[in-house]
Amino acid sequence: MAETEPSFENALSFAQELIRIPSPSGREGEVARRVRREMEALGYDQVRADDVGNVMGVVRGTGEGAPVMLNCHMDVVAEGDPGDWEHPPYAGVVADGCLHGRGAMDIKGPLALQTHAAAALKGRAPGDVIVAHTVFEERGGWGMEHLLASGAVEPAAVIIGEATQGDITTGHRGRGELEVVLRGLAGHASAPDRARNALDLVPGVLVALKTLAERQDTDPVLGPATLAPTAVDVLPESRNVIPDQVAIVVDWRVLPDSTDEMLLASVEEAVRRELGGVPEGMAVEIRMARERQKTYTNREELRDLFTPGFLMDEADPLIVAAAEAVGRREGDGPARIRPWTFATDGGWSCGVYGIPTLGFAPGEERFAHTNRERLDVEEARWAFSRHPDLILALQRALG
């Protein structure tokens, strides 16, 4: 017997609790434990966590229907200066018709809705409803990659709970982060002739990146790939020392099917063409950005920050069934079908593992990662009410 009734009101209270628990990437542990308790209280048939800290719950189907997985992530980005927020970022305040705070729409609000919506299908869904909430989505998607690589879940389709404002989303560009590392010879700024200033190569590299940015491919649905230098890191940092290392960070929003090797080769060619040759005593290295990540379960890896892209055909029977099942909050007809502008864990589920993936959730993308983050309560209520029909429609379409 479930201790908690699956309902929108209970889901909203659950979301408020989650917002009150800060959970940056790598420190999702307390949120994960709270999610497990909620799944257990809702009467899930199976609840567990894996070795990187993803939390998985299963509501068993009544027959042999295809399993559908609901997914959100448990980590959030930093809040910045709390004084810049209209409401405290970790208070979970409901005011002026909205749930406010870090994670309200990205993504603890939708996480709570998914968790309760799945429980509401107990005894109704022909196939299993899997709910998997992952770690490290905000830093490349280690959680989802590990979850699917491990074979711990084998869904026939995935619903991502990133904000869509009630639309059905079919994919997004991926994201690559590269570093162009320039090396020279450090020296005292009072004697520049004894050094090889790594900054001397920066103008040429920036021209090469601008040229490369101007000849990016375009997808008719996702639009163009884009790249831009976003930071210049200099070592040593002392202002009276000529630096021997400069790293130019490049943010590249890539089209599906792009790989690390393709990105590196493109930048290498562009830089070689612009610089011609590298002066004696200097060097250029182009590499994918990596960071050492550690999960709250103490797993540690040096991780590439690449997030794959993906795109489902809007005429795919699953997309059509989803749009018809969800409908529109205002007016008649199927939901609008479009891509996201930002990247999600769907790049792993569909782009890498080939599992049909779509997005559906309340929330406006423009509030993500801002100090105005909020979730419209009535929009969330409507989205919660559409989840059962969406899940059942996908299971029927999967056969």
Describe the overall structure.
Helices cover 28% and strands 26% of the residues. With 399 residues, it is an alpha+beta fold. The protein folds into 2 domains: 8-172 and 309-398, Zn peptidases (Aminopeptidase), CATH 3.40.630; 175-294, Alpha-Beta Plaits (2-Layer Sandwich). A 6-stranded mixed β-sheet has the order 1-2-6-3-7-22, sandwiched between helices. A 4-stranded antiparallel β-sheet has the order 14-16-10-17, with helices on one face. Strand 12 (218-219) and strand 13 (223-224) form a beta hairpin. The protein is elongated, with a radius of gyration of 23 Å.
Q: Shape, please? A: elongated
Oligomeric form: single chain
Strand order of the largest sheet: 1-2-6-3-7-22
Head-to-tail CA distance between termini? 30 Å
Radius of gyration, Cα only, in angstroms?
Answer: 23 Å
The residue-averaged pLDDT reads 97
Count of domain modules: 2
CATH architecture of the largest domain: 3-Layer(aba) Sandwich
- Can you count the beta strands? 23
Fraction of residues in helix = 25-40%
Protein structure class: alpha+beta
Question: Which band does the percent of strand residues land in?
Answer: 25-35%
Uncertain runs with pLDDT below 50, 5 residues or more? none
Helix segment tally: 9
CATH homologous superfamily descriptor of the largest domain: Zn peptidases
The third-level CATH topology of the largest domain is: Aminopeptidase
Biggest sheet details: 6 strands, mixed
Q: What is the level 1 CATH name of the largest domain?
A: Alpha Beta
